[in-house]
Known about the structure:
1257 residues, 3-stranded mixed β-sheet, disordered N terminus, 52% helix, 50 helices, laccase, alpha+beta, copper, Cu_oxidase_CS
Amino acid sequence: MASKFGMAGGIPERRVRPIWDAIDSRQFKNALKLSASLLSKYPNSPYALALKALILERMGKSDEALSVCLSAKELLYTNDSVLMDELTLSTLQIVFQRLDHLDLATSCYEYACGKFLNNLEIMMGLFNCYVREYSFVKQQQTAIKMYKIVGEERFLLWAVCSIQLQVLCGNGGEKLLLLAEGLLKKHIASHSLHEPEALIVYISVLEQQAKYGDALEVLSGKLGSLLVIEVDRLRIQGRLLARAGDYATAANIYQKVLESCPDDWECFQHYLDCLLEDGSYWCNEPLNDSVHPPKDVERNSSHLTDEVFISRLSNASAFAQKLQAEAGNDFIRCPYLANLEIERRKQLQGKGDDDKLIEVLMQYFFRFGHLACFASDIEGFLRVLPFGKKEEFLEKLIKSCDSLSAVPTKLLGQSISLFKIEELIGNMFKIPVVGAALVLFILCVSVHSFYDNFQELENSAIRMAQMYCKNLPLSKDLDQQESMHGEELLSMACNVLVQLFWRTRQLGYLLEAIMILELGLTIRRHVWQYKILLVHLYSYLGAYSLSYEWYKSLEVKNILLESVSHHILPQMLVSPLWVDLNDVLKDYLKFMDDHLKESADLTSLAYRHRNYSKVIEFVQFKERLQHSNQYLMARLEAPILQLKLNANNIEEEECILESLKSRVHFPEFSSEIGGKSLTFNEDMQSRPWWTPIPDKNYLLEPFEGVSFCPRENLQQQRKGREANVRTAIEKRSLVPRMIYLSIQCASASLKENIEANGSMYDPKISSELRFLLERYAKILGFPFNDAIQVVVGVLSGQKSSEAFNSDTVDWLNFAVFLNAWNLGSHELGLSDEDGCRPEPLAWHGLIIQSCVRSALPSGKRKKKSGSVDQSNSPVSNAIRDSIQSLCSIVEEVTKWLRVQIKKSEDENVEIILSSFHRKEQTVGPGQVFQVLQALISSTSDTELGDRISQTLKSWSHVDVARKLVTGQRKFPGPTLEVRDGDTLVIKVVNSARYNVTLHWHGIRQMRTPWADGPEYVTQCPIRPGATYTYRFTIENQEGTLWWHAHSKWLRATVYGALVIYPKLGSSYPFPQPNHEAPILLGEWWDRDPIAVLRQATFTGAAPNISDAYTINGQPGDLYRCSSKETARLPLDSGERILLRIINSALNQQLFFSVANHKLTVVGADAAYTKPFTTTVMMLGPDTAKFNLIDPPVRNTIGVPTGGWAVIRFVADNPGTWLMHCHIDAHLTWGLAMVFLVENGAGELQSIEPPPADLPPC
C-alpha cells in the first residue's frame, strides 16, 4: 500500500494505516470516523477522499460513495498541486468498479497517463482498466508503449496476448498474428526469452498461423530448454508434428509419452491416429466442445492398404501388451482400453472381427467390471457391434456369473455393471406393441428366454431392489457423507419403473419410483442422483413445490448454477411458484453477473503472474458464459417475472417498464445476439433418460415402439436446440415492449376522455404495436391476418383450442396484445362478443387497469366543452364486461378448486397408496416397493448398524403420500411479503378437521377487529370446509411479524412469517443487507397437539413437550425424525445478512445465536430499535427498570417468574382486543383478558361493519 519514503497517496503512512486496518477488520464506522479526521487535516487530498468513498461503498452507501469519488476525480483534474499517484488512482478504481462505473476509473488513468507520459505504474494501472473492459486493442497499444519504455519481456507478452485475444474473440486476422510474430522475433534476437510461458505464447502464435515447422524448430532449439518438464514438451511436439502431417515421428513421440504416463488415454488415441495417418482429430480440433466433448470422432484411414493398416495395428497391439506388462497398478485402464480401441478401429474400416471384440470386452469386464465407470468405458465400443452380437456379449457375461469375484463389494459392482450393459444394449427399451397388449422381449439374468408380457422387465427392477437390500450391510460402518455400496441400484430401478409407466400408463409405477427414491434419501440424504430424478418426477406430476425443495437440497453453488440449473429452471418458468422462481433467477443471475466481473479480476491476475495461457482461457471462458443460452433466457425471464408479480398495480408496472427501458430498447435484445453463436453449458449427462434435453419429455408422448432407444437419439435431439432457443429468445424479448405499448393503446381507447383531459396520443404507438404483433405472429408460424383468424376462431368457439398446439400461452399473449391494439386502432372492427378478452390474466388485467385509469378525471383543467360522460360508452361497457369476464374466470377456477379439496386429505392419501400398495397383487405396480417394505420390517441394528436401522424405522411411505397430496414438503407455512401501506386480502379455506382462525400477530388492525383472529373474541372460528376472507391494511409498520392459528393449539403447525418492507422509495435506517432470510424457531409434534392439550386438561398436569425443536421446519440430526435436514443459508464471506427471527414455539422461550459471530439487533416487533450488538438473544426481553425516555415498541413481552413489566398504550383503536399470555399452556389455564375500546366521534374513530362472510357461531 505504501509508496516511497513512508508516504501513502501523499499522506504519511502512519496516518493511513489505522484506516486500512479498520477496513480489513470490517469496523467501518470506526474507519469512517478515522477518515473524517484525516480529511480534516488533508481536505484537498484525492487519496483521503478515495478512502472515504471506499468505506462508504463497503457500508452500502453507494450514492454517497459515488459522490465522494467524483469529488476526488474533480480534484485530480482541476488542482495541479495535488498528488496523482498510482495508489490514489487504484483506490478510486476499486470503488468505481464496485459501483459499476469502471469507465470513470479508466478516464482518470487516461488523464494521468496524458499528464505523466512515462510513469510506468500509472500505465500499468491503465492497462489493468482496459483488461477489465476487455478493450483488447487498447491493451495492446498500452502494453507496447510500456515495452518501448523499459523493454521488459512481460510487457511484450502482454501485447502479444492482447493481439491473440483480438483474433480469438474479436475481428483480428492474419496481419495481427504476423505483427505478434514479428514483435517476438525481434525481442528474441536482442534479448531471447526467459520464461516457459513466453515460449508457449510464441509457439501458439506460430500454431495459429499453421507454421508448424517453425514452431517445431523453436521447440527443438535453445528455447525448448525453457520447458523443464519433459512430458509437457513431448506433448507439444507430438501435436505440432501431427498437425504438420509428420505422423510417423509424431507416433514415436506419443509412444514416449505413454511410456512415462501409461494411463493417458487421450495420448493413446493420438498415438493410434498418427500410426494410421488419420488427421480427423486435428482437422476437427478447433470445433471440439470442451464442455461437451464428443465421445467419438469420425475416423478415416481408408488411404492405407489393408496390409499396412493391419501391420500398424499389430504394432499398436504389441505396444499395448507391453504397457500392460509394465503397469504395476490394477487401476490403470488405458492399456486395456487400448485393445478395445484397436478392435474398434478395425470395425470402422470394415476389417473387424465381432467375436474378437466380444472376447476383448469380456477380458476388460473381468478386470474392471466392478468399477462404476465400466459401462461408460465400453459404451463407444458396444456401439460398433450389431444388435445380435450385443445380445451375444450379454449372454456370455451372464453365463460367466459363476466365475465372478468372491469379494462382496466387487461382486456387487460387477452385478451392477451387468444391469447397466443390459440398459446400454437397449433390451429394456425394445418392447414390441401387439394390439392393446404389450409384449416385452428382455434377456433374463438367470434364463435366456423371451416372455409375452412385461413381467420380466418388472422383475429386473425387483432384482435391483433385492440386490440393494442384500448389500446394505456392506455400508453400515460408512459415514453418511460416503457413497454407499450399490446406491446406483435404486436409480436404475427407478428408471425401469418409469419405463413401465411410459408403456402401460399405470401411474402406480411412477409413484412407486418416487417412494423408493424418497426411501433412499432417508437412508443417505446426499445422493444427488436420487434428488435429480425426484426433481423431474415431481415436475412431471405438477408437484412443483416438491420438485423445487429437492432442487434446493442439491445446494447448487458457483459455476454449478450454470451447469445444473437446467434441471429446475424450465419447470419453474411454467409453474405458479413465482416467488420461488424469482429466487432461482435472482441467485442464478447474481452468480453469473458476479462471475463475469470476477473473470476480469482473474484475467488481470493472470497477466501480473505471467500465466499467459490462463489469460486466454479466462477470457474465452467469460465469452462462453456471456453467450450462454440459459443466461440470455434468464435475463429475459427475470424482468417478465417482475411484471407478472406486479401486474395488480399499473403504477408499479410502469416503473418496472421504465427501469427496463422497454419504451425504446428492449425488443432489440434478440437482435443484439443475432450474430453471436450461443453456448450450451448444461451438464446433460445428469438428466434422466426420459427428458434428455429441457424441451423434450418422452413421458408426454406415446411409446414409440420396437426400434426406439432414447440413448441412441440423444445427439439427434440436441442438434436443433440453438434454433429453438433463438426463436424463444426473440419471442420473449418482445413481451415487455408489447406490454408497454398495449397499456398505451388501451389508454388511448377512451378518446373522448383523452381530449377532455388534454392528453396527447402518439399514433406511432399503434403502428409499432402492430409491427411487433406481425413479428410475434411470424414466430408462431402464421401471417398476421391468419393468426388473427386463429385467435378469433378459438376464442369464439368456432375452432378447437388444438389450433394453438402446445403454444397456448404464447397464443393467448398474442390475443391479449391484439385486443389492446384493436382498442386503440379499431382496425379490426371486432366486437366485444368476438372473444378478445383472453388469458394470460396478468396482462389482460393491466389493460383493463389502463382503460379504467384513463376513464377517470386527470385533475387537469377541463376544456370549455367540459368532460364527456362515458359511463355508457361502448368502451366503458367493454371494460365492464371484461371485468365481469375476469371475475367469471376466477369463479370457475375457484369452483374447480372446491371440487378438488372436497375430498379429505386421508382419502386422497389412500388413493395414492392404493395405486401401488396392494399386498394381494403379484404383478403390476408395487412389487419393488414390497421388497423395500420387507427390508424395513425385518431391519436389525446388528446387521445394518444403528444409523441405517433407525433411519429405516423412522421412514413412512404414508408421509410421502401425504406430502404429494398437500403439495408441500416445507414446514412452516408460506412467508407473506408485503410493504407498509399495502392492503391484504387473504382467503382462508379450512380443509382441516378442526375449527380454526388466523391471527396476524402484531398487526395494528385499525378499525378492523374482524380481521384480528382470536377465536370467540373477535370472530367465531372457520368451520371445516368453510372459508373466510381477512381484509386489513398495514399502517405505519415495518419489520418482522408473523401469522398463526389462534384456535386452541393449532398454531403448533399453522404459522409463517409476515415480512413488512418499507414503502417503495424508502429504505432501511441501516446499511442495505446483501441477503434477507426469515428464521422461524419452532417445534415438531409426533402426536396431534390437540390430543396433547386434551390430555393435559384432563389430568391437570403440565402438558407434554414437543418431540423436536426446528429451525425453518428442519430438525437437524439431533432427533429421531424421518427427515434430518438442516436449515441452510448459503453466504459468501463478508456479506451482510438481515435475519428475521421469530419464536413460534408453543410453550418455550428460545435462545438464538450464530457461532463465532456477533449480532446487531436493529428492530423488534415491526419497529426499529436503537442498534445494539450481542452474541445471544432470547426471543422476548426482561425489563429491569422503567424507561420513560424512549421505551421500545413491543407486541409481546416476557415476564420472568416473580417479575413484572409495565406497558402503556393509547386507546385510539375501537374494538375488542385480547390480551393474553403467549405461552399456550398458560392461555389454556385462563391467563387472558379483553380490552374493550369504544367508538369515538366520527366515522374514522368507529369500527368498520362486520364483513358479510364473517363465520357464524
